[in-house]
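re: that complex we talked abt at group meeting.

here r the seqs, copy pasted straight from the sheet so there may be weird spacing, ignore it
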Amino acid sequence: MNNRTQFEQPAPVGVEARDWGWRHSTRKDFALRHVNLTIRPGERVLLLGSSGAGKSTFMAAMAGVLGSDDEGESEGELTIDGMDVRSARGKAGLVLQDPDSQIILERAGDDAAFACENLGIPRAQIWQRVREALDIVGLESLELTHSTRHLSGGQRQRLALADVLAMRPGLLLLDEPTANLDPEGVKEVHDAVKHVVESTGQTMVVVEHHIDVWLDLVDRVIVLGTAGDSGNNEGGVLADGTPDEVFSTMGDVLAQGGAWVPGRNIPDYRAGHAPEQDSIHFQAASSTLTASLDPDEPVLQCRDLSFGRGTALGTGVNLDFYPGTIYALMGPNGAGKSTLALTLAGLLKPLAGHVTIAPSLAPKPNHLEPFSWKSRQLLGRIGMVFQEPEHQFAANTVRDEVAIGPKSMGKTQEEAYAIADEMLERMNLTRFAVGNPYTLSGGEKRRLSVASMLAAAPHILIMDEPTFGQDFRTWSEMVKLIAGIRDLGCTVIMVTHDEPLVESLGATAIHFKPTSHDERKA
Amino acid sequence: MSAAEPHTASLSITVTPPDERHEQAKPASQSWFIAKLNPVSRFICPLFMSLPLFFTLDVVSGSIQFGVVLILLWIGGINPLVVMRRTWPVWWGAFFGFITIAMYGRTGGTIYCSWGAVTISDGSLYIACATFLRVAAIAVPSVMFMLDLDPTDLADGLVQILHLSPRFVYGGLAGIRMFTLLQEDWRALGLSRRSRGLGDGNAVARMFSQAFGLLVLSIRRATKLATAMEARGFGSDTERSQARVSQLHTIDWIAYVVSIIIPLTAVGIAIATGNWHSPLRGA
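got the structure back, here u go
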């Protein structure tokens, strides 16, 4: 890591906000307001605040991408290196959460050159900058013609980092750059950023719920308040200081706001351990569940299963899933966890071998393979919660969304809505009942996607990354929820790389071990 | 491979490592000759080749051009069998064109079969054959020139050679990449509907509901992509520089000349042999 080429150093730049605020033109309230702060050149800042505090808006503002006056109204002053942010193109480099939306071109080298082209850098310099930027993020062995589609999550985020470094910005802005990555990818990106800031001395501002990831790199923590929060005078900066100062005085407030404050205990929701007053009960859903399932009989089995889309990702898989147990499919990004989950859910055809449900749960005798069932026959048996809640929404209101399952199962309108209302109540979504699912916040959408699946009372619930990119508050809610589902006697199979989640629920981990062909023969 | 061991704390399954699943990088074309051409030329050549053929509807010019193209592609590195295989949609189109014109084309000469509006005659069969050959002579080279064309290289050519607006061209290029993501979205939408019990019944109604979901997702994706592009200085007033050079070389000019000679020769022979037949004149 130490022998990389010397990166030509851009001068670090500072940020100055004077009573700054921004209101999206479609909203009535300011996203953030009365922000006063000075970030000196070379400082490394962790920016915190509860969801809705406008962290991402502030990052976008510093990157100069908030848009023109018709997209919103700004007040006060925000400058980078003494210049108005909107005329400071190229001074700030912004890396976002989702690798898919940041990689623009097909070949890695072209993608890294894109920003330089836009800044009008002469050709000869562009390629030198591109090579340097790829080297400094640890992609020194990556060919310039390598397809960006064939990179791992960690590699893609490092490429996104190289993409902005090629502009030689004096300010590096990282907006949850590791939220979508597996632990290996998080480490890769962290190490790359560490190498970058240590060798270039650039100013850095990072937004992240998982404070632990960046704690060794930051020397200052700034906490933004939500505009309109009671007791903090319409937003602005709530706290500002060294990490120690801020966490000792603000730890509880931050945790409540959803941050993963260092040193906090993970709640214990293993079977039989859940704090009684805390757990969620589902009487309505459970009334249709048969309590008669034999705890020693597997509800779902794979025998000699090959799964994949076209080509097999895994072959000869044998697994048994028992009632009242949580399983975690774990392994690196791209190992095929989601594909196995979809196969188990009866949505993808097994390439070979069998997925079978317990005979007592089958829609007809000897009709044991979920993929051969009709769509409706999956209801009440196997439910799948997708990683993107929006992939799942099919109704215009939150209440209808939850009622879809029960209705398709042949319940009357009244019964279906009774179940829906109860489910919304449990999930704390009642006040959104007539709202459109797409208008909910991220955490609410995810709760709704679980609620609508649970309303169909499945015995087996399969969840793809249920805690993906969530802050501590919504994370805790989800853990509680999954524990509650297990305590009903359901089998929960989740795809995840969230170690605390697995630990908290005492889930049985199923590890995906990538093994090359040669190793397997040996 | 560990067999199922119930109630143990940890299980594992073996999978293929992600980096073993990569397909090989595709060449710009299967033909060494076409691969060397500038992407812009790969549009211009088929255009040159097709224009003269619009002025005649005969079997001679079409078959000569089609034959010459097959031979040249063979010299250029693509076996005629491969050409046939890779252009199969063209053959379906040509086939249905043939059937339709044979049945409904202008009647002339001997009538072989007549049934209501359908009349198959010498005249209609001749035009059907000519149309079939013309479609083959125009569409086959077009498809073969454009197969495996790299969109980024094409965008470079459009901006640097044809001087189209970079904002428009590269914006479009980024949009094309988004289609891959939208395909994944569409598939996920379909699977989720099956999982929610909505997968049976009316396929058309299901499509509409799914299409709405896709619309919402595509707007979100496009917004994010636009932000990422803007954050990298796209769309500013600064004049854009070019990391890659897109130029026309001698080989491009050779290709243009050949693309003009082939159809002119084909049409010339048709005229010389008295087969020239204006499409406007009918049969």
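couple things i noticed - The two ends of chain B are 72 Å apart (CA to CA). Chain B has a mean pLDDT of 86.
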